[in-house]
Amino acid sequence: MSEQLALSLPVRAASGREDFIVAPCNARAVDRIDAWPEWADPVQYIHGPAGCGKSHLASVWMQRHAAQLVQADTINTTAKVLDDWLSDGAADTGLVIDGFEALPETGEEVVFHVINHARANHRHVLLLAREAPIALPVRLADLRSRLAALDALAFGLPDDTLLSALFDKLFRDRQLAVDARVIQYLLPRVERNFHDIAKLVARIDALALSRQRAISVPLVSEALSSGAMTNNGSWGIVEPSV
Predict the structure, then answer these.
(1) pLDDT digits over 40-63, tens only?
(2) pTM for the whole thing?
C-alpha cells in the first residue's frame, strides 16, 4: 500500500474550477482578502515573485466582488482604460491592477487619481506587483507617497508545505494515487512556480500512461530528465541544493 500524504491545509475555490491552498507563505495576504469588505484601507497592495499566486488570489476576490481587471502597462493618460471606472456609472465595481511594476510613467498620475477616488468614494482597489512599493521606480512624488503609506502584503514563493499540498491536489485531480516519497523527491527539484508545476504534473501523468507504469521515483526522474519548465519554455532539471 502506498504511503499517503497527511495534509489538512484549508482550500478555497478559485474560478469555480481550481482550489487555492493556504500556507504560511501566503496566509497574511489570504487573511486580508478574506476580510473584505471590512478593509481599513480600500486600497490594498500585494507583492511577490512571478508565479507565486497573486493573480490567482485576486481571481478569488473577483468571484466575490465585481471588479474590473486592468494590466498596469496599459495605463496612461491617453489610453483611457480607467475612464469608466473613475466615472459614477461604475460605483459598485472594484478594480484590480495587475503587473503594477510595469506601470509607465505616463500612467502614474492616473493611478494617483484612482487611489484618491477609491478612498473618497470607498471603492475597493487591489494592486498586484512583483516588487514592494518602496522598490518601484515611481517618479510622481504624490503617488510615491501614497504607495509608501500602504500596508503592503508580501506573497512568497510556495514553501514545502504548500508545494506538497499542491502536488497532492494536482495528482488527485487526475485520479492518481502517488506515494509521499515521490512528492518529497520532487520538492527540491522543481521551480517554485504554480504554472510550471501544473505542467510538470501533466507531463508525469502523460509519461506514466505512455509507459503503462505507476508513478514512482524512477518515472518522475525520467520526466525531470526531460526537464522542469524553465523561463525560456524548455525543460531542464533543477538540481537540489546541498
Answers:
(1) 999 999 999 887 889 889 999 998
(2) 0.75
**Domain ranges, residue 86:** 26-154
* 8 Å CB contact between 103 and 75: yes
CB 101 within 8 A of CB 130: yes
Q: Are residue 134 and residue 192 in the same domain, yes or no?
A: no
> Rounded CA gap, 199 and 229, in Å?
8
Let me know whether 141 and 69 are in one domain.
yes
Work out the number of other CB atoms within 10 angstroms of the CB of residue 154.
13
- Under DSSP, the state recorded for 81 is T
Cell numbers 491552498: residue: 21
Grid coordinates representing 111? Answer: 493611478
Whether 68 and 146 share a structural domain: yes
One domain for residues 128 and 82 = yes
Question: To 10 degrees, what angle do helices 217-226 and 194-211 make?
Answer: 120
Locate cell 515611481: which residue? Answer: 138
Helix axes of 160-173 and 194-211: crossing angle, nearest 10 degrees: 40
